[in-house]
Design brief:
This protein has 249 residues and is an alpha+beta fold. The chain has eight helices and eight strands, in the order H-E-E-H-H-H-E-E-E-E-H-H-H-E-E-H.
């Protein structure tokens, strides 16, 4: 399954997998997820102090969890199974910044409920630490996790020209098990429709990513703070309107 996962993601514009291996990494700078928790404060402090706490906290969560979330979502989307993760087998290469991540694959979980227990146990200490160190609310940080499970599958459907609604529904099923395993239900992302066809749909986050508060970026199409009219205007000029198979582009 692991080789096929790499093959299916190869060439896609958005497919941020971690390194997938049978062995733990060797050499300096490698930390398990357990050890990485001690460096969250440093990770936050290394960012531009002029940027508000919200975007800095979200960037820290992205650096820590994006690849793990995508790997889990993509595996379930393609195979109805995913590598079982635990904090002692998910690694970060950290030397002032995170530049590599490695998942040591010891077992494949074929049941959402079984998979969710280990996933939640792995990510919870990291989310809690970012929340404590940044003082950014847990609702925003936990919503990122659930939102990216949905957008991980939705992005694959879009890139491969597949059914977007079906991808979103499958992500929602996995999200329910993640909530049951302990992720607080602070928000719910939704799939917004902008027309009659499946390709005229895209996701709206459960909670804002706060990037627009940096004074440079603006609210994006996925922002739940936008009203329907404003979101519709963004959709009218969005590149997300059409299916896109990167490998055939």
């Amino acid at each position: 399954m692991i080789d096929e996962l790499r093959e299916r993601c190869a060439g896609l514009a958005f497919a941020p997998l971690p390194e997938l291996a049978e062995d733990a990494p060797s050499g300096d700078g490698w930390l398990t997820a357990v050890e990485m928790r001690k460096h969250v404060g440093t990770l936050l402090a290394a960012q531009d102090k002029a940027i508000p706490p919200g975007p800095r906290a979200m960037e820290a969560v992205r650096l820590l969890l994006r690849e793990l979330i995508f790997c889990t979502a993509a595996s379930v989307y393609f195979f109805e199974a995913a590598p079982r993760v635990d904090a002692e087998h998910y690694w970060f290469h950290y030397d002032g910044e995170i530049d590599r991540r490695r998942m040591v694959v010891t077992e494949i979980a074929a049941d959402d409920r079984d998979l969710a227990q280990d996933f939640v146990a792995t990510v919870t200490p990291l989310v809690i630490e970012v929340c404590a160190q940044s003082r950014v609310g847990a609702r925003t940080l936990w919503s990122y996790v659930i939102d990216m499970v949905h957008f991980g599958m939705l992005n694959l459907a879009r890139q491969l020209g597949r059914d977007r609604a079906a991808a979103w529904a499958r992500a929602s099923e996995l999200a329910e098990e993640l909530h049951a395993a302990g992720i607080p239900r602070r928000s719910r992302p939704v799939l917004a429709s902008y027309g009659d066809s499946d390709s005229e749909s895209w996701g709206v986050r459960g909670a804002c990513c706060l990037d627009f508060t940096d004074g440079v970026q603006t609210m994006c199409l996925t922002c739940p703070l936008l009203d329907d009219d404003a979101r519709g205007q963004l959709w009218a000029v969005s590149k997300l309107r059409q299916p896109l198979d990167i490998r055939q582009a």
